[in-house]
Amino acid sequence: MHISLSLLQPLSDCNILHFGSADANELFISNLFGIFDSGKLNFAEGFGINTNLFETNVINLAAVVAVVISFVGKNLTALLEDRKKTILGNLQEASQRAAEAQERLNEAKAQLEFAKKKAQQIRKEGVLRASQEVNNCVSQHEERLSKLEEFKQETVQFYQQKAFKQAYIYVISRIMSRVKERLNKGLDSTYHVVVNNFYVSRFTEYNP
């Protein structure tokens, strides 16, 4: 028996890739068996064996594919659909995790920038505070030096006045002694008392 390849054209018209469709499966099977019922097969002597091995293999393969598609198509479609949902779910989860990671990264960058600004602010405040402390120390030191200089001047002035007073008293006492000596030689007792009282009063009134 010889079957022309043109007889398989109805099989090629059936889109076997859409095996998830029940209508396509039924159409494929009906086309397959329609080949045998259409009278296009030329039987020379009843039901014989096809001597064309290639065409026989094609028919056998088409029959097997039709059966597989008919019984396995729906389950395979469901399996692929589940696989598709799983892949989409994984992609969505990965996208969500990537977004969360990016958000955490942005937060970390913001915290780092805030920490840098805070560190710069603390450093500036530290430098300013140190400068103020140095200025305060210098001012206090200058103030202490000024007070020390003032105290020194007061001390020097005090001892100068004391020395001058002592010298003045010594000179006055020497003068008084000389005066007394001269008065004792040339004056009586009454005049001597008057002169002494005069010098004593002048001495007590003196305030250097």
Automatic annotation (TrEMBL):
Membrane association type: Single-pass membrane protein
Localization terms from the record: Membrane; Plastid, Chloroplast thylakoid membrane
Top-level taxonomic group: Eukaryota
InterPro entries in the cross-refs: ATP_synth_b/b'su_bac/chlpt
One Pfam family, short name: ATP-synt_B
Presence of keyword DNA repair: no
Main location: membrane
Coiled-coil annotated residue ranges, if any: 84-125
Keyword tRNA processing: no
PANTHER family in alphabetical order: ATP SYNTHASE SUBUNIT B, CHLOROPLASTIC (PTHR34264:SF3)
Function: Component of the F(0) channel, it forms part of the peripheral stalk, linking F(1) to F(0). F(1)F(0) ATP synthase produces ATP from ADP in the presence of a proton or sodium gradient. F-type ATPases consist of two structural domains, F(1) containing the extramembraneous catalytic core and F(0) containing the membrane proton channel, linked together by a central stalk and a peripheral stalk. During catalysis, ATP synthesis in the catalytic domain of F(1) is coupled via a rotary mechanism of the central stalk subunits to proton translocation.
Protein's recorded name: ATP synthase subunit b, chloroplastic
